[in-house]
Amino acid sequence: MVRIWISEAVISLLLGAVVYRLSYTVLRHYCGAWVVVLLSAVLLGAGISGTIDPALLHDLHVSETSLPPTWLLPLTRALAYLFGAWIVERILRKRESLGFGPNANRGN
């Protein structure tokens, strides 16, 4: 069960990071990028069910008594998605403070 949580969290973290980076590249505003990330998180949360396939649980030999509450996996996905976006924002802000921002090579 822990393997499922870890893989779900890593995929969500990477997806959040990619969505934030792409939205920031297009919009060039942190606030706009966060709006895109939050809206996509809501849409992904509504579109992906919170239950785990029973066949997968059977293949991994997970007993029914050791399953976590049904709200925990979607919460983990959402938090990892937002954390991935937050990490990319910190990296972008650090790059801008060092002079590697989007306008660094324009010769202004």
* Biggest β-sheet description: none
Beginning-to-end CA distance, first to last residue: 54 Å
Rg of Cα set: 18 Å
Could you tell me the strand content as a percent range? under 5%
Q: What percentage of residues falls in helices of 4 or more residues?
A: over 70%
Please identify the structural class as seen in this structure.
Answer: mainly alpha
- Report the uncertain regions: none
Q: Mean pLDDT, as a whole number?
A: 84
Write down the overall geometry.
Answer: elongated
Order of helices and strands: HHHH
**Would you count the extended β strands for me?**
0
Number of helices in the DSSP assignment: 4
List the helices and strands and how they pair.
Blueprint (H helix, E strand, L loop, with lengths): L1 H26 L2 H18 L6 H6 L12 H26 L11
Helix pairs in contact: 1-2, 1-4, 2-4
Report on this model:
- The N and C termini lie far apart (54 Å).
- The chain has helices at 2-27, 30-47, 54-59, 72-97.
- The mean pLDDT is 84.
- Helices cover 70% and strands 0% of the residues.
- It contains four helices and no strands.
- The protein has 108 residues and is an all-alpha fold.
- It is elongated, with a radius of gyration of 18 Å.
- Helix 1 (2-27) packs antiparallel against helix 2, helix 1 packs across helix 4 and helix 2 (30-47) runs antiparallel to helix 4 (72-97).
- 16% of the residues are buried.
